[in-house]
Structures are given as C-alpha cells and as structure tokens.
Amino acid sequence: MVSPARSSQVTASGARHAGGTGRLAGRTVSRIGFGAMQLERLHGDRAAAVALLRRCVELGIDHIDTAQFYGHGFVNEVIREAVRPEDGVMVVSKVGAEPDPDGPLPLRLAQRPEQLRAGVEDNLAALGMEQIPLVNLRRTDTGPGLRAEGDQVVPLDDQLAVMTALRDEGKIGAIGLSSVSPDVLRSALPAGIACVQNAYSLLARDDEDMLRLCREEGVAWVPYFPLGSAFDGMPKVTDEPAVRSAARELGVTPAQVGLAWLLHHSPNVLLIPGTADPGHLEANVAAGAVTLDEATLSALDAVPSRSGDTVLG
User: What is the CA radius of gyration of the chain?
Assistant: First the structure.
C-alpha cells in the first residue's frame, strides 16, 4: 500500500522531504537520505555521479552521508561539484579511517586525535566548506569491519576531546558516533551526540536497547547495512521469506519492505541507503510511501534477529 502523503511531505518553503521528516543535529531533514559511498563506482563517469546527486535533490533528499576515504576523495569532490548552497542539503561526514590504496583493504584506521583532526580538515578542503554540519566518529567497538590494534586503540575521552574542540572552533556543527557499543554511547552522551550509525536491519537487531536509548535521548538512529551485506553475520533482508511475502502482498520490492520496516520501527530512524543507479535511488525513496499494516508489521517483527559480528584484519 502506497501513501503519497507519507512519502514526500512538503514544507512551508515548498521543499519536499523524502519519506517524511525527522531530526538530525537540530535540523529537520528527510527521513530518507543518501549514502554516498557507492558513488565511487562511478569514478569513470563523473557526469553520471553528479547527475545522480542532482536527482537526489529533485526527489526530496536533503541529507547526504559521505567520508573523505570514499573513493580516495572522489566522492567528496563530486558532492562539492553537484550540491549547491541553495539546495539546503545537509552534508554529513565521518572520520576514524583513511584511504589505504596499497593495503589489503581500501582503508585503514585513523583513530588517534591528530588523525581525527586531519580527517576533518581533509573533508573541509575537499567539500569546500567552512563547517561540516555533522561529523561521525567511526570507532571499532562493534559491527563488521576492522578492529583497532596498537596505537589505534585510543580512549574515547581522548577522541571526544578533539571532536568537541573542533566543534568549539566551528569546524564541525555536531558530533555523531559509528560502530559503537552501548557502554561507549552512554559514556559519550554528556558530550552531546547527535546520531549513532551502527549496522542494523530487520535481521540484525542486537542493538535494540541502544536504539531505544537513542530515542529517549533525542539521538537519531542512522543504520548502515539496512538491508544486510555480504559480511558474515549480516544476512540479506531481501532473502527473508517473511519480507518476500509482504512484498508480494503489497506489490512492492523486498528491499522497499526492509526499508519501510525500519521507518515504521522507530520515529528516530533516518535512512541513508546508497546506490549508483538512478532507478534504485528512486525505488529507495519510494520506500517512504510503503505503509505496513499491523498484521504485516507483526509478521515482520516476529522474524528472529540473526546477526553476529565479523572482524576483518
């Protein structure tokens, strides 16, 4: 069932919000944003990457998630070219890793305070901005991916000290956290945390208590891998029989059901699905118009969580 009123709310200024509205770092934004990481797949077709970002704006997306280590800076360069001040788009970036083109993985950790500061400066330069509205500190406490070793094991307080200093200097507007445990989030809350980005989906709900804490504290929950991934322990939501059944009944795709479930699940959920394909982009935005009735929600809620951490490196 599709509800156009829910999919794109219109503000007094006439701007549309994909999937309705939510709050992020003190701003009202579309609940469906855009995760820019996959733009690096368009490295050989810069015009297509710019066109995709312009289509995001046309569809009512007004927050874009990026990082300087996406495509070794290519993604931020494209955002700078494509997104105009009058678009009113909130650009969110992250620090805590850096490109490693010659390593076994395309990135390596950069957790030390001086590396976090350098990461913010690199983002500012590439994006051509005086202030990044929100910067997420990517830690390694939970979720799939690298784990810190050696000098990359840095106390949270040391990291928050440099992040709050950058905020005080006006170089960032707000602080978020990524890949963190509940204890780390609780310790960080006094510093003022705007959002949490953790791996989370219908089939990976280990962080349910943390999502609830974020809702109580007014912190946005911005899940990555919202439909699962190729990592072990992050099963693909679109393969789940209950999801496929709901999609058939509603006449939508399994991916749209998985995204719609997240939007229905908690009001502080904001989505940043990524793609390099214009058709997939439009389908992701259309997920904001999918209404799940009580029976469908109950069936989806009853699907057991099957997540588990996978560590690389």
Answer: 18
In three-state secondary structure terms, 95 is strand
- Give the residue among 35, 30, 23, 33 at the shortest CA–CA distance from 8: 30
CA distance 145 to 313: 8
Dihedral angle of Cα 163, 143, 212, 172, to the nearest 10 degrees? 20
Tell me the pLDDT of the chain averaged across its residues: 92
Q: Which domains does the chain have, with CATH numbers?
A: 4-312 (3.20.20.100)
Using alpha carbons, select from 212, 170, 219 the residue that is nearest to residue 190. Answer: 219
pLDDT at position 38 is: 96
At 13, the pLDDT band (50, 70, 90 cuts) reads very low
Q: Which residues contact 137 (CB under 8 A, 6 or more apart)?
A: 94, 95, 96, 116, 159, 160, 163, 175, 176, 177, 178
Query: What are 242-271's pLDDT values in tens digits?
Result: 999 999 999 999 999 999 999 999 999 999
CB 18 within 8 A of CB 4: no
Half-sphere exposure of 137 (CA within 13 A, CB side): 35
The catalytic position among 34, 70, 224, 261 is 70
Q: At what angle do helices 294-301 and 241-250 cross, to 10 degrees?
A: 160
Least Cα distance to 238 among 247, 118, 8 occurs for: 247
State both tokens at 288: 């904001």
Determine the Cα–Cα distance for residues 129 and 91; give it in Å rounded to an integer: 10
Which residue, chain included where needed, has tokens 């699905």? 273
Give the model's pLDDT for residue 5. Answer: 31
Q: What angle do CA 266, 267, 273 make, to 5 degrees?
A: 80
- What CA–CA distance (Å, rounded) separates 61 from 302? 31
> What's the mean pLDDT in 63-67?
97
Cα 183 to Cα 126: distance, rounded to the nearest angstrom: 33
Distance CA 173, CA 171 (A): 7
Active site residue 224: no
Structure tokens at 12: 């007094």
CB under 8 Å to 301, separation ≥6 — which residues?
A: none
